[in-house]
User: What shape does this take?
Amino acid sequence: MKLLKAGPSPFVRKVLVTLHETDQIGDVDMVDVTASPVAPDPALIAANPVGKIPALVRPDGPALYDSRVICRFLDHRAQSGLYPDSRIWDTLTLEATADGIMDAAVLIIYEERFRPREQVSMDWIEGQWGKVARALDALETRWLSHLAGPLDMGQIAVACALGYLDFRHDARKWRTGRDGLARWHEAFCTRPSMVATDPMA
Ligand code: GSH
Assistant: This one.
């Protein structure tokens, strides 16, 4: 299998952490592509018509995307229990919350990177950050007990989302007022899968 990836994408990191946690990292070749909303990479589009990373190219079936599908496939392939039946809807909702943080955080970067300076909308950027801040507050107030439980995909996704905030939006200081989430993240980041995929390493 080949994983199409680029730079410090938090969505790619979800897949990489899952590969490490499920002991499948050796089954996948890494292929770097360019991920750009305005100049999509032909190699990427051939695998994913939407032109986003990650995409997983398989020898025995169509390419898989997006990160949620790939992670679920990898969990199924290894029978690793990252989507436990007993709390499946919570796990999927937590993963969706983390992906929502990543989407908004990435779109802020794109607004600054791909638009001419005079067209950059601060209202739009703050609107995106509002999504991040509300999701972080929900994690702090409603999800800490789930985060403290056995490893599942929701936890991996949240850890990757928070790692991306550290990497790209450090100045926003997401930890302020969210002590429980900060403590959980610090502990989770000691896992070898997180250390091996740290974008700041
Ligand atoms: N929902 C997708 C997933 O979970 O995989 C989101 C993936 C995504 O937004 N990836 C970004 C990308 O490929 C890089 S972090 N952007 C290129 C584009 O928007 O065209």
